[in-house]
Amino acid sequence: MFGSVRARATLGATLVVAVALLAAGASVLLALRSNLTDQASSEAESSARKVAVSIATGTAPAALELPDGDDTPVQVVDGDGRLLAASEDLERISGTGSSAVKPVTSPVDDGGDDDAGDDDGGSDRHGGKGKGKGSGGDDDSYAYGEIADDAEGGKGSATVDGESRNYRFAGLEVKNTRQGDLTVYAGASLSAEQSAVGTALTVMLIGFPVLLGVVGTVTWLVTRRALRPVEGIRSEMSAITASQDLARRVPEPATHDEVARLARTTNETLAALETSVERQRRFVADASHELRSPIASLRTQLEVGAAHPELLDVDGAVADTVRLQELAAGLLLLARLDAGERPGEVRVDLATLAGEELSQRPAGRVAVRTHLEPVEVAGSRSQLARVVGNLLDNAQRHARSRVDIVVRAEGPWAVVEVGDDGAGVPKAERERIFERFVRLDDARARDDGGAGLGLAIARDVAVRHGGALTARSSPAGGALFELRLPVAPVA
Questions:
Q1: Is position 134 within any domain?
Q2: What is the pLDDT of the chain when averaged over all its residues?
Q3: 472 in the same domain as 368
Q4: Of the candidates 34, 50, 165, 385, which lies 20 to 30 Å from 472 by C-alpha distance?
Q5: How far is 21 from 37, CA to CA, in rounded Å?
Q6: Which CATH number goes with the domain that contains 313?
Q7: How confident is the model at residue 89 (pLDDT cuts 50, 70, 90)?
Q8: Which domain holds residue 425?
Q9: Is the per-residue pLDDT at 132 higher than 80?
Q10: Does residue 434 contact residue 482 with C-beta atoms inside 8 Å?
Q11: Domain-embedded: residue 332
């Protein structure tokens, strides 16, 4: 199932969205719980502070008006851990300073009469900051106390009137009261937090699968639509392979995305392949035609010689054999070049190479003028010698009286120029002459005009060596062929 791009894309998108949703959901739940817990802590501290203010201003624990225990259970505990006051209907509590739910009886204060020798009339025997309310010391009167700045928080639970809940408790200390140091514990219910978190979790558990289903479905449909041109390209390529018709092309979508570029590149590849195959067919046909002539001529001469030895044209047979040998060598070199044979890395001095090629040619009907500067290139010596030899043969064949050959360095290039004073090459034909088996002098004899492979071989070799071969008019009025090759790096 997951062997297709569409299935993998859908699965990947769904997994990414699922991970993102889980991370976002967890963050939302944690943030919601933290905010609601902080809110409950603030409410608990506010309730505890209200009770603490009442105690600090002189209200006795037994006389406190405590909030409803269902919403805010409250305890007032002294320094010995005794419960002095608690909310009504409180049955169980945990998470505070005392687990008691029933207040103990407070000791009676005699109002200061214990000090018989105190003439000031009832100073606080505990060293309080002021007098109690009323005169003579009322039992429900307390000295002013000090309330702590910060409350201590914690979680716990309580059972009020048979109903148990979880609470957030705040403990606030009140110092220096008539009863000593007291601590007020007040709780705020966590029911709202639990309800909100539970509702959010339920929504997520229901909504996330639905959202993932929507994401998967949309991704599947969008991917199918996006990959539809790819399927068209694939089916057309399959049809081209089956029919072997390289003239067919794959459909190009009217977009500017990667699929459109793939289709254009595929069509360019098909066009190049069609050109290559057509070129190969023409090459085979031309090669067969060119080989047929010398072979037929040679066979005829040998058959005549066998029947009539006195009529055997030995020179003609040798010439046909040499021509056949050169044609076979040229075809073999072209085949190697077409197969991608890489040139060697031998350092070759082009001036020396041109001198060697000239020395192997007997003095002909035209004069050869040279200007040879030493310049080295890297490559195959035999292939470069074939290039220079072909250029010299072509110039000597078409020159009227003079051939010029120049070898020089021109920046990063080594330049070889071979020119003649012949009829030259028409401007419209200066690229066509580098095609295989093309001859502009078809009316001339094949023996004089060659097979039309020399210039094609020369350009292919130049290109394989990273250079170029071009044709233009020479100063003498004939053709000038310029070979450019990269200069060999310094050893």
A1: no
A2: 82
A3: yes
A4: 385
A5: 24
A6: 1.10.287
A7: confident
A8: 344-486
A9: no
A10: no
A11: no
